[in-house]
Structures are given as C-alpha cells and as structure tokens.
Design a protein that fits this description.
Length: 255
C-alpha cells in the first residue's frame, strides 16, 4: 500500500491534479467534477471538495456552466494558506531551487523545545536553506524539526526537492499552523546571502506547523527580501461597539 493510498479520497484527487496542473498552461481545461467522479470512483461531493481546495489555493478557476480551468499564477501568496516554496515558485512560472546551508541533528535549545512542545536537549533536525527562484535569492529559511523526521530529512535531496513533500512521503502529514509576520532590517549575513544591502527591508515569517495528530513537527523562520516577495492578506473589518472601539470579527493577525 502506497502513502498516497492512505490519504483521504479528496486528498488523493487533489495531489494527482496538482501534478497535472504543473505541466499545463493558464486557461487549459481541467476535468469537471463529473469526470473526476468517473476517473477516481468517488462521489460528486468528494470531487468537489478536491477542486475547491485547488481553487482556494488559486490553482484553478471555476466558471459555472463552463468548467474548471488552470488559473494564472498569482503574484503574491495568500497569508491564510501555506504553500511549499517549490509549488509556489513553480506556479508562478519560475524554477525553484535551494542551497543547503546547514543540515544537522543536534540537541534542542530551550526556545526550540518550547516551540515544538518537546523536552530541552531532545534531538531536533536543524535545516537552513537559501531559497532561490530562477537563480535569484528570495529567502533564507531556518527550520527546526522534531527528531523523528531525521531519517527522511537528512537523506533527502533538499537542494531541488520540497521539504514538505519529503515529510509527507515519510508519513508526516502536516495539517495546520500558526505564525506571525513582521518587518526587519537585513543583517550583514542576510545581505550577503540575499544579494541585498545591509539594513534593506525584510519580510520575516515565523510559523509552527502541526501534523494531523496535533503534534508540532516544524518551527520555521523565513526571511524574505521584501522587494522580491509579498503576502496577500484578506480580512474582515471589525464592527465598532457603541463606545467607538472596534470589535473583532475574525481579523487576520499579522503579529
């Protein structure tokens, strides 16, 4: 039994379509819900769920009465959905790659242990990469992973491949996460790696991701060259209370 066959049916369809879409051009038609039902032997609700996930990620455009089509790559990533850097750059028509700066198994620090909910000095994988698109440096990504991922991560081709795909193939199915987004000035090392000036603006994203069992698997800090990357944010406007203060209605918190 393959890892893919262990996924829910809608997820199997979603992953299969993601692979197809990567080789298609914007505007090309993708199978309808009815066609997916026949191809995968699932209900229309299951097929629709898979297509809605792709539409939420901006990969397909659904047009009532006409069908579903490959969408044009968005310029910015939506802040409420995390897509792997590899998929994100591929979707934008760019060639992703990475330069591995650090990959080592070592004891966790107190801060890392707190982020992952493990014991201090428990083994973790420290992975640090320079992420590039078409050879242009986009981000410095520092990731701390629980020790159980070491066998997969230490042997994977992470210069050309995706960390999250590596984790999924090893049985670590990531489900949800939380993070903050802030601004920072580039350090001398940031400037050297990203080919920008010291003190140039950075977009800094810090996140912790859980798997389907609620276990914290990954804690990552990504330092993006602000001139080369942006996040699209959608939010509700807080309704003012009678005293004039604003009442939250599910606003996105950028930290």
């Amino acid at each position: 039994m393959t890892e893919l066959s262990l996924q829910p049916h809608y997820r199997q369809i979603e992953l299969a379509l993601r692979e197809r879409i990567a080789s298609l051009q914007p505007g090309e038609r993708v199978p309808s819900d009815a066609e997916l039902c026949v191809e995968f032997g699932v209900s229309r609700m299951t097929a629709r769920h898979a297509m809605e996930r792709l539409a939420d990620d901006g990969l397909v455009r659904r047009e009532p009465g006409r069908g579903s089509f490959v969408a044009k790559p968005p310029v910015h990533r939506r802040a409420n959905r995390l897509m792997t850097f590899t998929h994100e750059m591929t979707r934008a028509g760019r060639v992703p790659s990475s330069r591995v700066l650090t990959r080592v198994v070592r004891p966790s620090s107190s801060g890392e242990a707190s982020s992952l909910g493990i014991q201090v000095r428990e083994p973790v994988v420290h992975l640090r990469r320079l992420r590039l698109a078409d050879g242009e440096p986009i981000a410095i990504e520092s990731t701390i992973l629980i020790g159980a991922t070491a066998l997969a991560v230490m042997s994977a081709d992470l210069a050309n491949g995706s960390l999250h795909e590596t984790l999924q193939q090893a049985g670590f199915v990531l489900r949800r996460g939380a993070g903050t987004i802030s601004a920072a000035a580039a350090t001398a090392e940031d400037g050297r790696l990203l080919a920008i000036g010291t003190a140039d603006p950075l977009l800094v994203e810090q996140r912790v991701i859980e798997d389907t069992h609620g276990r914290r698997v990954e804690a990552t800090e990504s330092r993006y060259a602000a001139a080369r990357y942006a996040l699209e944010v959608r939010f509700d406007v807080g309704a003012p209370d009678r005293d004039g203060s604003e009442r939250s209605t599910g606003m996105t918190n950028l930290g």
